[in-house]
Write a structure and sequence with these properties.
Elements (H helix, E strand, L loop, with lengths): L25 E5 L5 H8 L4 E6 L2 E8 L2 E6 L5 H13 L4 E10 L9 E10 L13 E2 L2 H12 L5 E9 L23 H7 L2 E5 L2 H10 L3 E11 L11 H23 L4
Parallel strand pairs: 1-4, 1-5, 5-10, 6-8, 8-9
Antiparallel strand pairs: 2-3, 3-4, 5-9, 6-7, 6-10
Helix pairs in contact: 2-5, 3-6
Bound molecules: uracil.
The site of uracil has 11 residues, from strand 5, strand 9 and strand 10.
Length: about 270
């Protein structure tokens, strides 16, 4: 454990080196490459583009004197796994996923923010790192900072358990698909997760939290709800911009407070 690469070595998938990311210890990880520039520039209007390779689009932003890598992971667990491996080798210690999700509890509205305390591992990637009995749990200190920063912005947020699926359709028990069929294994699964007090479905939190715990790295996850599955199956992005802005502010606040707490001011 702990293979950190040399300063100018560009890693194969993310196309980044330690020099390019200015040895930052912080990464903000949206799924969508198309959101990276917007996120980076909200944190720092002078953020610069670093690389674009496959699903990994990256920018470097500064929060005060602290460099922050913003890089997309693409959709789903395998590409998250590759990103964490390479970012860990570049020296990143703190990973914050910023995504969208589908809420499954009645009290959560479209536009609300969900901070993940732990994730149900419905995907296959995390099992390559730890057995299913191992918990996908968010780093407490980083998550606490994210919660505090979010609390300062809005009361429309929730903290709890997320389910991370390898598929958007059958694994999240969606019938509005090409075949309309959900295999038996997943039939009734949404109701079960609701009864077990799971707040939301998405596709990336569990591998992130599991792999980071295994690697002794810190991970947290914040998502905007773009649908409430009890009310509709169709994502509604009308509140998306507003919620994203809050999530980005909360992430910036959490990183700033972590930098202060750890005296990582350079
Ligand atoms: N992302 C998901 O994986 N599911 C949703 O319902 C919304 C976003």
């Amino acid at each position: 454990m702990g293979n950190i690469v040399s300063k100018n070595q560009v890693l194969y998938h993310v196309a980044l080196s330690r020099e390019m990311i200015k040895d930052t210890e912080y990464a903000v990880l949206p799924g969508d490459p198309g959101r990276v520039e917007m996120i980076a520039k909200q944190m720092d209007e002078n953020a610069i583009h670093l690389a674009t390779n496959r699903e990994y689009t990256s920018y470097l932003a500064y929060l005060g004197k602290t460099p922050v890598l913003v890089c997309s992971t693409g959709m789903g667990a395998p590409s998250v796994g590759i990103a964490i491996e390479e970012f860990a080798m570049l020296g990143i210690k703190n990973f914050i996923r910023l995504g969208t999700c589908g809420a499954i509890q009645d009290h959560i509205d479209v536009g609300d923010i969900i901070i993940t305390s732990a994730a149900v591992r419905l995907e296959g990637t995390s099992v390559h790192y730890a057995p299913l009995e191992y918990p996908a749990v968010a780093n407490f200190a980083l998550t606490q900072k994210l919660v505090t920063a979010t609390q300062n912005l809005t009361s429309d947020f929730h903290v709890g358990i997320t389910a991370s699926s390898d598929t958007f359709f059958p694994g999240q028990e969606r019938y509005d698909s090409y075949s309309g069929y959900v295999r038996k294994h997943f039939q009734g699964s949404m109701a079960e997760w609701q009864n077990l007090n799971v707040l939301n479905f998405e596709m990336e939190a569990a591998p992130l939290l599991t792999i980071c715990s295994v690697f002794k790295l810190n991970a947290a996850c914040i998502c905007a709800a773009i649908v409430n599955r009890n009310k509709s199956e169709i994502p509604d992005k009308s509140k998306y911009d507003e919620s994203m802005k809050k999530c980005i502010k909360a992430i910036a606040g959490a990183i700033e407070s972590d930098v202060l707490a750890n005296k990582r001011i350079k």
